[in-house]
Request: fold
Amino acid sequence: MGSVISYEKCSQCGGVYSIDYYYRTGEEYRFCQRCGKVHNHAIVRDENSNYCYDEDGKLKFEDVISQGYGCMALASKGFKTVYHLEKPVDEETKKEYLEIIEKDEIDKDNCYLTMWDEEKKEVVAVFGTLPGTYDVLYCENQEEGEEHVDNG
Reply:
């Protein structure tokens, strides 16, 4: 499956909105690793992962959009995974996260937990360092002649 990855400024928080466009299928997956906003345009699949078609024989697509409630980044030696949160961060989420990052295999220095502050309309770091904004990570790198964005 071939794809093109690009970046734009997140409309919710100003972070880096990564866009993974699968040109063979027309699917597109968007994700902000700062606030957790998600917008996926994907082919509908049945319980066996087969494509679903409408009555005209055309592929069915669905859009899944989720406000960014925050992100949970877990790192270990050699890799990092960032998850978007599907609900606002509460005390239970914080407690569970802090328990997870105490495990020996976790690289605590490269982990973070963010949350969206609806009142202030900004991302807040609950734990770790808040990922940079699009303007800082992308625009400043372009001025220096770099083409790679390291947002996590």
User: Anything to note?
Assistant: Confidence is low (pLDDT under 50) at residues 146-152. The helical segments are 91-100, 134-143. The first strand starts at residue 3 and ends at 9.
